[in-house]
Amino acid sequence: MDVRSGEQERHWFRSERYSLVNGQWYFQTREGTVEGPFDDVREAEMELLLYLRHAEDALFQGVG
Predict the structure, then answer these.
(1) What is the SS3 string spanning 1-64?
(2) pTM, 2 dp
């Protein structure tokens, strides 16, 4: 991975954002919260998009 001069190399990892628990779907946020349950993965995906949009709006409005 390329890094800027003087910075240490970082090792990033990715994990699944969605999980299925007892037939219900959840998603995990970068903030460490788990949101759900949702009836299917499509609903979880749509709710994640709404969550991200709301977080972005709050950031631009200085809320948060």
Answers:
(1) CCCCCCCCCCCCCCCCCEEEECCEEEEECCCCCEEEEECCHHHHHHHHHHHHHHHHHHHHCCCC
(2) 0.67
